[in-house]
Amino acid sequence: MSFSGDTQASAVLQAAQAGDRQAAADLLPLVYEELRKLAAHKLAQQTPGQTLQPTALVHEAYLRVAGDNHVSWEGRRHFFFAAARAMRDILVEQARRKAGPMRGGDRRRQELDDACAVLEPPSEDVLGVHEALEELETRDALKAQIVLLRYFTGLTMDETAAVLGIPARTLDRHWRYIRAWLMKKLG
Question: pTM value?
Answer without folding.
Answer: 0.53
